Amino acid sequence: MDVIVVLWQRQMRRYVRSRSRVLGAIGQPILFLLALGYGIGSVYKRAGEGNYIEFLVAGIIVQTLLFSGVFWGIQILFDKRFGFLKEMLVAPVSRLRVLLGNSLGGATITLIQALLVLVISIAIGFRPHNWLMIPVAILLMIILSVTLTSFGAGIASIVEDFQGFQGINNFIIFPLFFLSGALYPLTGAPAVLRFLTSINPLTYAVDALRWALNGQSHFSIYTDLAVMSVSLVACLYFAVSRFNRIQV
Amino acid sequence: MSQSVIVAENVVKKFDEVVAVDGISFDVKAGEIFAFLGPNGAGKSTTISMLTTMLRPTSGRLLLNGHDVTKEQASARRSFGIVFQDPALEEELTAYENMKVHAVLYSIPKKEQAPRIEELLKLVDLWERRNSYVKTYSGGMRRRLEIARGLLHHPKILFLDEPTLGLDTQTRNLLWDYVEKLSKSEGMTIFFTTHYLDEAEAVAERIAIIDHGKIIATGTAKELAKQTKTKSLEDAYLELTGKTVRDETSLKNDGLNVRGALQRSRLR
Is B91 part of any domain? Predict the structure, then answer.
């Protein structure tokens, strides 16, 4: 068995063995979907914008990927603090393979969470505009899960403690999420908000997923894909370069 | 005289302007049980980190089984097993699964994995509990599992960094029994640190004492006592390093050693 496979397997075993984590991580997006979907839905409809839940699903899936992916970085922080990282780093294997095995595990877990949210959305009445586009949506989710877990791994390699990670959460993750057009349409939004949203790479991911699920998008899908590709490469580079510098 | 498996030549480690290790040289012979002692902050952990390829020396040379730790990192890493000061096990996995991960990390051929894991888990009396999660293990069981894991890839050298910290007397005795048995049966070189001088006196064939980043004495427990005209290793140690209490200067991630700190506070 290869090192990457065995480290991936370790992540998966951890995940399957802690069921509370599964529920905890999808609880929040489901709450958002139900509370906002039904709460704001009627106002949204009266404003002539159509079905809010239909609109919201892509945003909530990206939220799941963002939170689950970046928070997965806490796993690296745990390994750093509680020793297992030493066991991996002192072994005669390259750091790149250690990072890959762990991150692929994290990305798989993140993807599973997002797929669960998609299934639950369908169960409560969401209908994609074209079922044949579901594989495309899943492909976009895969790209995003790798991007965001790499981002989480990079951050975990820099910060030294859980409080630091909490700060990152408040100052990076929440703004990224709220300024991504996940919760509201960009057409008609104030200029400042539109500007802030347009410089947020996550906006283009939400837009691409909405294109796949709802058949509507604010930007061109080519712009979306270009931004997503650049973000993927940038986050991978960030993770590898920071992970290589960890001293335990 | 037999061959040296650990060689340190003028090793220096600086963190910015702080000199943690100040030009130390020593060697450990094949099959020897070697104790590395010193007060907190003397440079022990830094030395172990350098020996185990976790930190690069600022200057000087370190050889493990003939391999330079910075230039031939992979071969150097294959030459040793280590039991870290703080536990480094995956608690959500079983003992067997922890061993299996280690076997893959050290590319042990598939056919050899199962028999070797069985042999070692039996050696440390954990075979019956192989399918229990590590989170259900006591401190002593974890230590034994870490020793078994450290031996999985047939290392020439075993590093033990304060292996008995936080363990009761029975477990400590048992643990040293294993270590002595191993040293005899497999001809393994053991390099350990401890704050319990009675352990070093009973187990170590040779001792080095480090203080302020320099090695201030080496020899057998008897030689050290003779040198300092004292009666025991403890007296010799206090004579050499003084009686003042050191505040450990945190040079790197010491603030993160939560478990170590917890165990230390439990000891008090």
Answer: no
